[in-house]
Write a structure and sequence with these properties.
The structure is a single chain. This protein has 4 helices and no strands. By secondary structure, the chain is mostly helical. It starts with a helix and ends with a helix.
Length: 70
Amino acid sequence: MGYIQHAYNRALHSSTNKTPFENCFGYLPKSPFDLAFASTSDGDSVLHNEEERENNFIERIRLIHQKVKE
């Protein structure tokens, strides 16, 4: 059941153009495939300042929620 739920929560929905996981948490969780072929760097590693990462995350969630409401 966990695999089915994970796949559903990663699926893009036409009403929001986001996945259910993105709508709730603001990011797309990694799949086993992503982990198996992960690169050594990710976009968040560029942001060295923890406060900046937090503010960017909060803004990303706010924008997602605003789009879902629209």
